[in-house]
């Protein structure tokens, strides 16, 4: 089996960050904070977080903060949204620098996006999606502020998005999709509500995502994509059914998507690499206990030592 080209991936991540006028940097302009989470978490998983200047990163993160609302934008001067707020909190967790936050202000921003039916909007414009339920619960939990929301209603909304096939969609009645399943299972794991899941039924749907090439897809009839290594495996781990996947075939698929010379991982073999698939490829390998990669927490999507530091120190 091919090996993980860890040094090349580290070099790729550090250079993407520096090449501000590259194609990848330009298309990621509006989601830069999200990209920072993907890149920096990958560096940490590969034991190389020190390859970047922590103080510089923290200053930049805080330049995306909106003190009036308490939320973070995807880049300097961009509007606040829960997705970037979670990324900011996650990156600050990586560097153990939550101390720079006005924690109650940030938590109030997130809690203020909860709707009457328990769902969460992504920002003031109101779009509702189970992604935002997960993001809100994950952020508030990392900040030790879950008590600021109506947790029962938050759980009830997620459960109302469960389908007959055992999966979950973006809204009640929405098609089951591995990305949304991660969000709903993660939300239920964080709130201690996994008993709402039929583990065998969902485990069966999730393990059917493994394609002949060893990779995982996000829903029936679709092509495998490296990112589903994370969305599917993390969900299977949370419901204790990860042994239903052929891990060796999946690891081989991920490793075949590497650019072994210049670093980076793509969605499928021979495609162009990007930072999103590099993160989810390495994260997937972490969930399969690949040697040299730090273990990850499947619910918080952060290295396990970072999550332990947050919850054991409290
Ligand atoms: C902290 C890891 C972490 C996540 C934050 C944003 C978020 C919460 C979760 C997103 C979950 C999600 C919906 C992932 C799927 C992303 C994806 C590859 C969508 C592509 O959808 P299609 O329809 O692709 O283009 P398929 O593969 O179905 O053809």
UniProtKB/TrEMBL annotation:
Tell me, what's a Pfam family for it? Prenyltrans
Keywords assigned by UniProt, alphabetized = Metal-binding, Prenyltransferase, Repeat, Transferase, Zinc
The EC code for this enzyme is 2.5.1.60
Q: Does the keyword Transferase apply?
A: yes
Q: Where is the Prenyltransferase alpha-alpha toroid domain?
A: 4-301
Which Gene3D superfamilies does this UniProt record tie to the protein?
Answer: 1.50.10.20
Keyword check for GTP-binding: no
Name any Gene Ontology BP term. root development
- Catalysis performed (reactions): geranylgeranyl diphosphate + L-cysteinyl-[protein] = S-geranylgeranyl-L-cysteinyl-[protein] + diphosphate
Q: Which GO terms describe its cellular component?
A: Rab-protein geranylgeranyltransferase complex
Q: Which GO terms describe its molecular function?
A: metal ion binding; Rab geranylgeranyltransferase activity
What cofactor does this one take?
A: Zn(2+)
Subunit relationships: Heterotrimer composed of the alpha subunit RGTA, the beta subunit RGTB and REP; within this trimer, RGTA and RGTB form the catalytic component, while REP mediates peptide substrate binding.
Q: Which family does it belong to?
A: Belongs to the protein prenyltransferase subunit beta family.
* Purpose: Required for male fertility and root tip growth.
Name-wise, this protein is Geranylgeranyl transferase type-2 subunit beta
The species this protein belongs to is: Panicum hallii var. hallii
């Amino acid at each position: 089996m091919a090996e993980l080209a860890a040094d090349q991936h580290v070099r790729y991540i550090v250079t993407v960050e520096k090449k501000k006028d590259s194609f990848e940097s330009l298309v990621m302009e509006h989601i830069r904070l999200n990209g920072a989470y993907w890149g920096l978490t990958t560096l940490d998983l590969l034991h190389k977080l020190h390859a970047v200047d922590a103080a510089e990163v923290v200053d930049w993160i805080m330049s995306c903060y909106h003190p009036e609302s308490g939320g973070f934008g995807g880049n300097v001067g961009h509007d606040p949204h829960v997705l970037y707020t979670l990324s900011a909190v996650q990156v600050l967790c990586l560097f153990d620098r939550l101390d720079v936050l006005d924690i109650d202000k940030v938590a109030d921003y997130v809690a203020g996006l909860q709707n009457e039916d328990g769902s969460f909007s992504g920002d003031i414009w109101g779009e509702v999606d189970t992604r935002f339920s997960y993001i809100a619960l994950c952020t508030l939990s990392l900040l030790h502020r879950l008590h600021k929301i109506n947790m029962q209603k938050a759980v009830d909304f997620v459960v109302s998005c469960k389908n007959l096939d055992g999966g979950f969609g973006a809204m009640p009645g929405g098609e089951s999709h591995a990305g949304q399943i991660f969000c709903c299972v993660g939300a239920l794991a964080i709130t201690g509500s996994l008993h709402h899941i039929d583990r065998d039924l969902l485990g069966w749907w999730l393990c059917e995502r493994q394609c002949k090439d060893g990779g995982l897809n996000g829903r029936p009839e679709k092509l495998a994509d490296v990112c589903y290594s994370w969305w599917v495996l993390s969900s299977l781990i949370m419901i204790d059914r990860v042994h239903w996947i052929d891990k060796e075939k999946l690891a081989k698929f991920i490793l075949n998507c590497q650019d072994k010379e210049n670093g980076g991982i793509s969605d499928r073999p021979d495609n162009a690499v990007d930072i999103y698939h590099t993160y989810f490829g390495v994260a997937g390998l972490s969930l399969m206990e690949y040697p040299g990669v730090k273990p990850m927490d499947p619910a918080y999507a952060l290295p396990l030592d970072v999550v332990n530091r947050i919850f054991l120190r409290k």
